[in-house]
Design a protein that fits this description.
This protein is mainly α and about 90 residues long. About 75% of the residues lie in helices and about 0% in strands. It is built from 3 helices and no strands. Helix 1 packs across helix 2 and helix 1 packs antiparallel against helix 3. The termini are close together.
Length: about 90
């Protein structure tokens, strides 16, 4: 059972990481915010990015919140996996 949960956590963190990267890259292009892809990416990534935006300051016009989120996800992954393997 713990192998299934470990695989799920690893996959979830990978998918979230890709979603954050894609959202950051798409933000450079003029795409309508009503686009279904944009709405899905916003729904998936906003619960992670929104709390971080309150803590992480902007660097001029640059929002480094996606970078911070990716680092935190990668630091959190081994802790979660180790905890699940200990079950």
């Amino acid at each position: 059972m713990s192998a299934i949960l470990t695989t799920f956590v690893e996959t979830l963190i990978t998918v979230l990481s890709y979603a954050i990267i894609i959202r950051a890259l798409i933000s450079w292009f003029p795409i309508a915010p009503t686009s279904p892809i944009i709405r899905i990416l916003d729904d998936v990534t906003e619960p992670i990015l929104s709390p971080l935006r309150r803590i992480v300051p902007r660097l001029g016009m640059m929002d480094i919140t996606p970078i911070v989120a990716l680092v935190l996800l990668r630091l959190l992954e081994p802790l979660l996996v180790a905890g699940l393997q200990g079950i």
